Amino acid sequence: MSYVISGECCSDASCVAVCPMNSIHPSPGEPGFGAGASLFIDPRTCIDCGACADICPVDAAQPVDQAAPEDVERNAAYFAEREPLEAMDLDSWEPPSYQVWGDGPRRVLVVGAGPAGMYATRELLLRTTAEVTLVDRLEQVGGLVRYGVAPDHPQTKQIISTFERVIQHPRVQWRPGTDATGLPPDGFDAVVHAVGARRSRRLGIAGEEAACTAEDFVAWYNGRPGAPAPVGLAGPRAVIVGNGNVALDLARILLSDEQRLRSMDVPTEVRATLAASGVKEVVLLGRRGPEEAAYTQAALHELLAAVGDRVELRYHARPTAWSSDGLTLGSGETIAAGNLFTAIGFEGQAIDGLPFDAERGIVPNVRGAVVGRPGHYVAGWIKRGARGGIGVNKACAQETVAMLVSSSRAAASPGS
User: Fold this and answer.
1) Separation CA 403–CA 104 (nearest Å)
2) Is 215 left (phi over 0), alpha (psi -120 to 50) or beta?
3) DSSP notation for 311-361
4) Is the pLDDT of residue 95 over 50?
5) Which residues pair with 212 in a beta bridge?
6) Which of 345, 342, 326, 322 has the alpha carbon at shortest distance from 213?
7) CA distance 114 to 363
8) Structural domain count of the chain
9) pLDDT digits over 71-81, tens only?
10) How far is CA 311 from its chain centroid?
């Protein structure tokens, strides 16, 4: 399912900056930008990531099945005579001369091959002449796109093929299965840390150690190497504490029947475990109200359409303890359940040698430049906190690389 932009579009082009597939047109600089009433989304390249909907200031970007028919028709007509554009045509797009480094750094280390690291690498290739060494502790690129996106969202994972093109570029040295701490920092002129924030936040309640975190469950059902099997799934009810898209993903996967599971790209043992699960009902527990829920309307609509008759949405509930009896709330009520899952967000971890703001879970930085550590930069969740979808990392990485380039020029200027 792709997205379309309604007639309420304000054409501020913020959606253009976050689209990971260059699907939104006319973009600034293209003929027609600013002259029409709307922007348009190419249904042939849209991967349904929802980044445009997340950032749109007037809620004009909508899933095609929720949009007005006239908006869908108008969008289709715009692209009827246009060829689809390659989002990352590294072979034909030469960086403008004014954007290429002069006597600045020539070797850059990018740590992390998730969306932020891949967009940073892409931007370095397009905007500079640097050689990039890209490392990741895993054997494949993609990070949370590969191992975090729900398996019933295969379109969103299509961006991985684009990332795989990046590591084939002649100026990229791809080093999978590499611990960046084993690389001497003096071997590079700049380092971009794009290590994400994959550790689940904790509720801080008694008995929580027996619960399953979103980090572990999502990694397991996506087949991430080394991911441990979750706690035994015991029905008939499970409680998921969380009000974001990840919590809704967990509920949808837990309640998928065998036929639905067969349509997903999940490991055989995962499919068998879920199919044999005794979980027949899920309580989605929000500690705040529905008006403060972090999930998107599109995600909620998908959940209700898929398994809505077996999901209970509860709000303003404060968990205090988990035991074999179930989840106890501050009100004194206990929700009987066989499993507790926590999906209340993720947090970053400190990086050796860099400052760290434990409260915010980020490396302190100014537009991506690490405070007090010249030559070190951050991109993605470790830069801004664990928020924003896949496409947001594009603009985030662009800002970081722009800061890196300007800092490099300043350092190389005579008299600096």
Assistant:
1) 13
2) alpha
3) EEEE-S--EEEEETTEEEETTS-EE--SEEEE-S-EE----TTS--BTTTT
4) no
5) 341
6) 342
7) 17
8) 3
9) 899 899 888 87
10) 25
pLDDT of residue 316: 96
The answer to whether residue 116 sits within a structural domain is yes
Report the first-to-last Cα separation within the chain, whole angstroms.
52
Q: Per residue in 379-389, pLDDT tens?
A: 999 999 998 77
Q: Is the pLDDT of residue 329 over 80?
A: yes
Domain match, 25 and 103 both: no
Separation of alpha carbons 62 and 52, rounded Å = 9
Give the model's confidence band at 88: pLDDT under 50 very low, under 70 low, under 90 confident, else very high: very low
pTM, entire model? 0.81
pLDDT number for residue 134: 97
Return the closest-CA partner of residue 136 out of 158, 120, 156: 120
Locate 131 and state its tokens: 């050689």
Last residue of a domain, one of 310, 343, 376: 343
Q: Place 321 in a pLDDT band, splitting at 50, 70 and 90.
A: very high
Q: Which domain holds residue 337?
A: 205-343
List, as one string, the DSSP characters of 236-285. SEEEEE--SHHHHHHHHHHT--HHHHHTS---HHHHHHHHT----EEEEE
Instruction: Please tell me whether residue 119 adopts helix, strand or coil conformation.
Output: helix
Distance CA 299, CA 87 (A): 25
- The Cα-based distances of 188 to 8, 169, 184, 185, 355 in angstroms read 48, 19, 8, 6, 20
Query: Mean pLDDT for the chain?
Result: 87
Query: Quick one: 157 and 258 in the same domain?
Result: no
The gap from C-alpha 281 to its chain's centroid, in whole angstroms, comes to 28
Q: Residues with Cβ < 8 Å from 173, sequence gap 6 or more?
A: 131, 132, 133, 134
